[in-house]
Design brief:
The chain is an all-alpha fold. It has helices at 2-25, 31-45, 63-75, 83-88, 92-105. Bound molecules: heme C. Residues 1-23 form the signal peptide.
């Protein structure tokens, strides 16, 4: 029986590798947590990041673009009125999770 189970165990472990890598990239932040944080953004940037007013929309941006802008706001390289203070409240893994969540909404 061992000759059957061994490869199965190996295969199962191999299948877990992408999951582990994914969890690491997310900094352990679940999609639900990202969705909750993104709700704060939508208060100003409109539902799903589609702003009805003068605040820029987010829905047209890629995740990478949102991350780059947020890091710029955080460091002060990107000039802002409110976003600098806002971005400082989030860690980099949180920013990346929020950005992926917002960018992912627009693929649906
Ligand atoms: C209090 C309202 C408010 C909240 C909440 C808010 N933003 Fe903003 N955001 C703004 C304003 C206003 C700007 C324009 C830059 C500035 O003046 O700070 C902006 C600009 C941006 C930009 C640049 C868009 C562009 O095209 O230039 C990004 C990206 C962004 N916000 C992401 C976020 C994310 C992600 C969140 C949630 C974590 C968030 N914002 C929460 C008001 C807000």
């Amino acid at each position: 029986m061992q000759f059957v189970t061994r490869p199965l165990v190996g295969l199962t472990l191999l299948c877990l590798v992408p999951l582990a890598v994914q969890a690491q990239q997310d900094g352990g932040i679940s999609n639900e947590a990202a969705a909750n944080m993104a709700r704060n953004c939508f208060a100003c940037h409109g539902p799903q990041g589609r702003s009805p007013g003068t605040i820029p929309s987010l829905h047209q941006h890629s995740a990478d673009k949102i991350v780059a802008l947020m890091k710029g706001f955080k460091s002060g390289d990107e000039p802002s009125t409110v976003m600098g203070r806002h971005a400082k409240g989030y860690s980099e893994p949180e920013i990346e999770a929020i950005a992926r969540y917002i960018a992912g909404l627009n693929k649906r």
